């Protein structure tokens, strides 16, 4: 009886959904190592392309087996991949390594599920899009991976996932490395080496991918606490979600990126405890900063200075009791975060940086506030530096254009300072 019962609970345990069983969280150090090795391994695409060229040049049966082997060896030696021990399956090994590296980068930087990554079609025109989105008077380039998901509708449906440019490198590497499969009619970016059970060209299976990425960690000896990290496909999604929550991405935006039907599931991915803790911390800090800025007359500049001044006027017109309520209501409109230059009253629809603070443009962005005191010198110095760089990069129009736009922005801030009476 007992045995039967334990067998049953074992089976039940196996079938528990991920919601209850949980996915191990990949430590930051492991994620960093994976990214570094994966970026290096993208170079394998060049070796695979060369091997394909040899096969096209010396196709069987018109060329003797020995001629092809000899040419292949030359290519591998030239590119530093030849080794007596692994000559038998070298192409297969390289393909597995390239697929694993590309998967790690795509999954980690988009949060896509394994099946969504495996449904990416071959060719940048089918799997990548760059769109210029107008945000609050500025234009920002956004990148997306195009694929399908089976999680939101009964049938596989096309969707897009916002991505960072490094994902494009992974897509391009696969396109170069797996051209041989595309040329034989396989439409998938992660092609399977075998044809399907009923014929037809298939994508790599989830099982094969899972096995390959475990090997990836073994090959590169990626360890945590002395043990080789047991990598699984779903860990990337969880890591992505946690990182995004820490960076301050809202739960609705995360739900959209993760393609969750139910927002409750998104909260689990972002870790409800972590999410609640971080939000509470931010809320507290924001309340303090808002009180300091809205409740005072410190001169400010920045794209959002006018809005802040309007808030101040409203605040001054209120009774003491209403002032408290007014201040308490502000953090629920937007939280305040520190940027390099000042403060960001972050509202996603007004964010010129698209949420990436390293692209902050405080002169243009309506979320930006900067205490005016002491800014003039810094701004003038930056302007001079940009002028100097423009001279240096004069043959590179894109860089010159970027620096010019930064100077135009600085000029706006200097203009605001002038109106305020040039606080030093
Ligand atoms: S970080 Fe800068 S550019 Fe981005 S929303 Fe905040 S103030 Fe605007």
From TrEMBL:
GO terms for molecular function: DNA binding. The keyword Transmembrane does not apply. Keywords: DNA recombination. The keyword Ion transport does not apply. One of its GO terms (biological process) is DNA recombination. SUPFAM superfamilies: DNA breaking-rejoining enzymes. It comes from the Bacteria. Residues 98-271 form the Tyr recombinase domain. InterPro entries: DNA_brk_join_enz, Integrase-like_cat_sf, Integrase_catalytic. This is Site-specific integrase. It comes from Halopseudomonas bauzanensis. The lineage of its organism: Bacteria, Pseudomonadati, Pseudomonadota, Gammaproteobacteria, Pseudomonadales.
